[in-house]
Amino acid sequence: MPEPLRPDPDQLLRQPELKRRGKLKIFFGACAGTGKTFAMLEEAQRLYHDGLDVLCGVVETHGRQETAGLLEGLPQLPPARHIHRGKVLTGFDPDAALARHPALILMDELACSNPPGSRHPKRWQDVNELLEAGIDVLTTLNVQHLESLNDVVSVITGIRVRETLPDPVFDTADEIVLVDLTVGDLLQRLRDGKVYIPAQAERAIEHFFREGNLIALRELALRRAADRVDEQKRLLQEAAADGNDLYPQDGILLCLDAGKGSEKLIRTAARLAARLGCRWHTIYTESTGFAKQAEHQRRKMVNALRLASQLGAGTATLSDPQRCQAIIRYAREHRLGKVILGRRQGRWLPFPTLADTLIKHAPELEVILISRGTPFAEAPKPTAPGRDTAQRWQHPLRGCLLALILCLCTSFIATRWLPAFDDANLAMLYLLNVVIVALFYGRRPAVVASLLNVISFDLFFIAPRGSLAVSNIQYLLTFGVMLTVGLLIGHLTAGVRYQARIARYREQRTRQLYEMSRALADGRDVTALVRCSETYIRSTFNAACQILMPDENGQLTALTPPAAMTPVDTAIARWSFEHALPAGAGTDTLPGVPYRILPLVSSGNVLGLLVIEPLRLRQITLPEQQRLLDTFLMLIAGAMERHALLQSEQQTRIRNEREQLRNTFLAALSHDLRTPLTVLFAQAEILALDLNHEKSAHTEQAIRMRRQIISTIRLVNNLLDMARYQSGGSTLNQEWMTLQELAGSILNAFDSEGNTGRVTLDIKEPMALVFLDAALTERIFINLLENAVKYAGEQASITLRARVTPGQLVFHVLDNGPGIPAGQETLIFEKFARGTKESAIPGIGLGLAICQAIVTLHQGTIQASNQPQGGADVCIVLPQPAPPQLEDLE
């Protein structure tokens, strides 16, 4: 037989290379214009310069110069030509690409459709053929072209994308490169014509490229890329041969049990997760006895899980008798590396705890123990509101009756069916009665039960039976021990019951505070706050109450309908409001009245009064009730102050906006009036001169017209100056001068307007040096003198007095007019304020406001008052430095 031909070793070595599938790398983005093609070409240029055989199969530049520039130097595949309905269409030539067989080929726009006549209808099918041939492919894709997101994109943008890509093609890609760009930068690129031509860009911005659409598409792209990373991480984890974690576990797992302090554990875990910036889960492992627990205990656990869910945790309830194994399994399945457990106090059993078991069986987990709470001193036993003496004794009497019934039943059963039992066992039955009575009815019935049990034990089981006599002295010790143990058990059981009752009261008070604070936070006005506060106080303290608030006149009034309570004495309420002290029942002030008045104080201010009239004074005098009432007062006062501050802030903002708008309007109006007034003044000046030269009879009318124009110009200047002072755009140009120079410039400016001889100077030291801004100071006195002339009349007598004292300069402008109306000495310096609102005197009330602004720039003061003999007195005080010496002036 001839020997078969042996295969060529070189051919066998080349076979794996021929069967190797190419790698697909997708440059993924939210939409067109993010730079996917640019990034793909940059990658191709880098690989080409590294010596790799790179070929450009399909690259869409869309006329972008930066993108087209990256094509230089790269080999390009000639397009295939197809004839369809008489038209020549160009497309990708797969045969030429396979014949060329480069190491890497560029295929832009993976989801694009091929022209009719091509081998495949979709470009991704061409890419798949190239990959099967062992050619690596670089391509681009937008998120709206994914088939699974097509309907979502249609809802967001209102546009149905026709060219889509099956998700398995995207999922099987070897690499995904996310090319991201902010929405603002993308819109700017679109406006600059770097995505589409200007005409197309404008249409795109109005339709597809709206800001809301771009934000939604960007979120989809980021989520899709993150999902792929998570999937790769999961696959890599499952592929680990040893089962160990390849990535650090940063999640938190909180394990709850039936013990107390679950809410504290949940909030602590939530804060820890927020600080670490990680996810967290909360679980509860049900045991076989969970269904047998009391309803309030099961409801408590359900509420705890609901709280954890509200705080952002994933929650689960596990049914597994092996709690430790259930926790370990859940932590590993959800990759939670930190386990939080509640620490138990007073552990004395030698058995290992749950934390020890977790550390032993799962050493990779970090176990954190958190305290369940800090023990506080228990409050005295609270008395339920509204209980009278009969009700207070009804509960203990029921306990005594139960003790008697249990004692009789135990004695009957023991004598009838348990005669052969030892005395010690019978004593245990009687002690059980004590425990039951103490558990449900407290300490006093437990004492009665102990006495009844000792007497019954002696009567029915100790010889001689039927009498209290004892034949054996040893039974006296038995009776004593039995009585002592019964009393101790009753005391301890009653203590546990008492603590449970105190905890219940505390939980109730906490819930009331929470509900009230939440209701006060939702209050929209003062009336709603008052109504809410009264409702909670009535239901909590079982008392009638009323909140009094000061009105505009300072009178204390109720904002809600009158309550069914004793009328409040207004004198007591006024005293409590003015002194910020409580009064009435239970206080040191008028304790005989049936109600108590408590001030609502916040930040040292009394905002109102709370009048409360309980059915029994004890309801508000117990320490815990007093603390609760004080807390209610602080919550109410805080809510009212917060509402007042909010109202004040809104009013201030409105006032500032109104003032700014008015200043802007006045500045614009004044600026527009200045130019025509200047022209009108020049024409009036020329007309007055010409008429005066011609000795015309109309010269006086022209002069009056000129004066009115000057007055109007001054009014416009006042508007502009006021706007400038308000914006802080004015600075001082101070210099040294004598009082005589200042007074002369003031009189010259005032006399030029036809006021010659109306002002009398009263200056003792005319050569005294003063340091100020001459132009602005002159403006002050021109406004004051004109104001005096307006309101004092044509026959006004005006005096300008100046005195220089060490450190200050004092001016007085005096007139003999009617003076300043009472109560308006300060108001006249406000903007647009006038002495008489309805008056024929011209002006808009800005002169004195400008004077005050200029004086404030000099860091001085200005005040107005009336003289004893009549007339107004405006006093100006300007600070002055020490005058320079003569050699300094030289």
Descriptive notes:
With 890 residues, the chain is an alpha/beta fold. 50% of the residues lie in helices and 16% in strands. The protein contains 27 helices and 24 strands. It has a five-stranded parallel β-sheet with strand order 2-5-6-1-7, with helices on both faces. Strands 10-9-8-11-12 form a five-stranded parallel β-sheet, sandwiched between helices. A five-stranded antiparallel β-sheet has the order 14-13-17-16-15, sandwiched between helices. Helix 18 (474-521) packs parallel to helix 22 (623-693). The chain is flat and about 150 Å long. The protein starts with 8 loop residues before the first helix and ends with a helix. The relative contact order is 0.03. The model is unreliable at 1-5, 241-248 and 374-388 (pLDDT under 50).
Strand content: 15-25%
Total beta strands: 24
Determine the N-to-C terminus distance. 136 Å
Strand order across the largest sheet = 2-5-6-1-7
Low-pLDDT residue intervals, each spanning 5 or more residues: 1-5, 241-248, 374-388
Q: Supply the helix-strand structural class.
A: alpha/beta
- Give the number of helices: 27
Helix content: 40-55%
Largest beta-sheet characterization: 5 strands, parallel
Concise overview:
With 890 residues, the protein is α/β, with parallel strands linked by helices.
